[in-house]
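[Meeting: bench + compute handoff]

Bench side (C.D.) handed over the final construct sequence. Compute side (W.E.) agreed to return the predicted structure before the next meeting so the bench team could plan truncations. Sequence as handed over:
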Amino acid sequence: MITPKLVAASSVPLVLSILSRGESYGYSILQRVRLLSGGRIEWTDGMLYPVLHRLERAHLIESRWGEAENGRRRRYYRLSSAGERALAAEREEWQAVDATLRALWAPKIGDASHA
């Protein structure tokens, strides 16, 4: 499992990325994160919905009420144009972090401690 701090730090880019692929609802977002992480990131409703509400207040996502196939009301979320810009910025930041860690963790040629 991934530490709660890293899960929290990655929640915004994960949600924005999922919604960049199309409209979705809370439970589906939870399932998608679980699937894509191979079960290593486990979100709960109590963690996801505050993130969704914060993103909506920041105008990065929009929501609407709709009806599910079973007739129940469900809230659907989609990325706004401001959310698309925020996702691009998030992507750049996370790619810089990823590249830095990969460089630091790459084995050095001739370094016996990484053999």
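W.E. noted at the follow-up: The chain has a mean pLDDT of 93. C.D. will use this when planning the next construct.
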